Amino acid sequence: MEAGINFFPDVHHRDKAADRYFAECLELVELADGLGYHHIRIVEHYFHQYGGYSPNPIVFLAAAAARSRNLRLITGAVLPAFNHPLKLAGEIGMLDAISGGRLEVGFARAFLPHEFQRFGVDMDTSRARFDEGVDAVRRLLTEEDAAFDGRFHSFPSTTSLPRPTQRPHPPLWVAALSSEQSFRRAGELGCGVMANPLAADTLRTYLEIYRTAWQAAGHPGRGRVMLAFHMHCAPDRRTAEARAEEPVNAYLRSLAAAASDWTSGASSADYPGYRQMIEKLAADDFHSVRARSAALVGTPDDVVDRLWEVHDRCGGFEVASLQVNFSTLDPVLAAESVALFGERALPRLRAERGPGPRAA
Amino acid sequence: MEAGINFFPDVHHRDKAADRYFAECLELVELADGLGYHHIRIVEHYFHQYGGYSPNPIVFLAAAAARSRNLRLITGAVLPAFNHPLKLAGEIGMLDAISGGRLEVGFARAFLPHEFQRFGVDMDTSRARFDEGVDAVRRLLTEEDAAFDGRFHSFPSTTSLPRPTQRPHPPLWVAALSSEQSFRRAGELGCGVMANPLAADTLRTYLEIYRTAWQAAGHPGRGRVMLAFHMHCAPDRRTAEARAEEPVNAYLRSLAAAASDWTSGASSADYPGYRQMIEKLAADDFHSVRARSAALVGTPDDVVDRLWEVHDRCGGFEVASLQVNFSTLDPVLAAESVALFGERALPRLRAERGPGPRAA
């Protein structure tokens, strides 16, 4: 199993200015690069404490590329709904070049009504925009002289520049939250799937759907699964818990606030069951997310044990993406946790199992 | 006078892969930062050898910010015609933060028909899109809870994030090529003006229009003028000439090719006189651009003398932006030229005159 770092800014601009936030992140990038972490990853969100410091993940990842040598740089994710495919393909080519071929591109549908509203994009077109956007970007990356005639974007014969450094293009990922259709689609597309720790049985079912679709579409191997976790470790469990509890709760409150449109009237045929899902998320706290292993808090060994437990219960996953500097957590403690996990946990994660899943 | 570096990629993707191109640029960034250059700058262009490696200048500048400490980072320029203002304002906030407040934002109208065609944007809306885009982005940077109702883009009350590190926003520039209206507009807006060395009398006239408009609009001071040059220096003049001639010519050929739509039928009421201007540019060569000081080639002292000559003839300008690694020029020679100019020319440029223009 590989482990990397997921930067998900959830700080309010009156609490922490963005220059300080990004300076802290870039210190963690250097630290993580030296310790052998697999990747860094950052979201695309807008206009709200929840993620809004990162309206273009590619901008931060370009700075991170210049501060690192080995880390993979993962968009987690870019949103075709709010980006022109010609622009997005060009930025992907630039970052793949600037990083010397270390980019991986995650795509997502977006799910926050306030973002759709401000961009003037109908949420009921979300899935269609996603499918078309991924298709258009992939064609622009793969082919020269690509023409495209879509419902939302069309262009005559075009060679996107720069051509990608990785051929035919950087590895692609698709974010899947809680619908069978999303997991199936990721498999059909031959993309890795970025998911969250759901109840173990549910996750296992969805990952089986993903892998079945992957194989049915004729892609080699069994696909690639990334799961996202909050993570905080310290030399002893009590200390880790005491440090992480309130920052995890603050993160959960900012997610609930950003998604509150869902529980106050938003609805879309493209998002069946979202209101109920957001209601459940809004009821989460430190204890409930820990109970389902969405937050991993304890000693490095505690965290590794829990990661393998999730791994075995869901049928295996390849990459853990760890949120380490969430919300109000003291950046010094976040750096200590990243260092400790790098020194104590990463070697265990690498050494203990071969590639692929272990029978549960 | 301050001098910085303008990266204008004009390499074909079959001649030089983008990872190599950007690695060379980032080496020059470190070199320039250590030598006290004022800025680095990069364009937004698409789909063609002429500029197409840089479809989003903010992506490269983010990497450059991470490789430098003091350089100003200037978009030269971003194009409102092809960018959503919500996206652009967010990226500006990110880069201003990542660079610790070193960003300056240049806007331009775009002028290449093949770019408008592929984005499906009518060239006759160019000026209106530019005006609206600059207005929308400036409001998003300056105000929280900004609502906007435009011809091309509208959004309800929105707080763009991250809020800019520089308050109320990074310094703004407007590119002006060859119309009185563009220079006047830059002055009215209170933005710096990015221009090219035109015939001396013409440039003096336009800059007077700019400064008059600046003062009439009640802005303090006299504005800020940046001129762009090709520059190559070597310890002796003959060597500099021998090295620069063919790369300058190659650059001019790629400009002519990218703009060839203008001489084969494109026309737009938003671009009066463009066909004739492009025809003139297409007839340029090393000798003609040198004659009008658009290319500065010689010893460091030659280049400084010529910069002051342009300065005095046009009524003064504040910033020289130097294209140093153009087209086929050997990157080792480009680095030598940047080092030599930094050591020999920058101290003279800084020491010889006070701020402001000298009477011609």
What keyword list fits this structure?
homodimer, alpha/beta, 360 residues, two-stranded antiparallel ribbon, disordered C terminus
What's the structural blueprint in terms of helices and strands?
The structure is a homodimer of 360-residue chains.
Chain A: E1 2-7, H1 18-35, E2 39-42, H2 57-66, E3 72-78, H3 85-98, E4 103-107, H4 113-119, H5 126-142, E5 146-149, E6 154-158, E7 172-175, H6 180-189, E8 192-195, H7 200-216, E9 225-233, H8 237-258, H9 260-263, H10 274-282, H11 286-291, E10 295-298, H12 300-314, E11 319-323, H13 331-351
Helix pairs in contact in A: 1-13, 2-3, 3-5, 6-7, 8-10, 12-13
Provide a short characterization of the protein structure.
The structure is a homodimer of 360-residue chains. Chain A is an alpha/beta fold and 360 residues long. Chain A has helices at residues 18-35, 57-66, 85-98, 113-119, 126-142, 180-189, 200-216, 237-258, 260-263, 274-282, 286-291, 300-314, 331-351, and strands spanning 2-7, 39-42, 72-78, 103-107, 146-149, 154-158, 172-175, 192-195, 225-233, 295-298, 319-323.
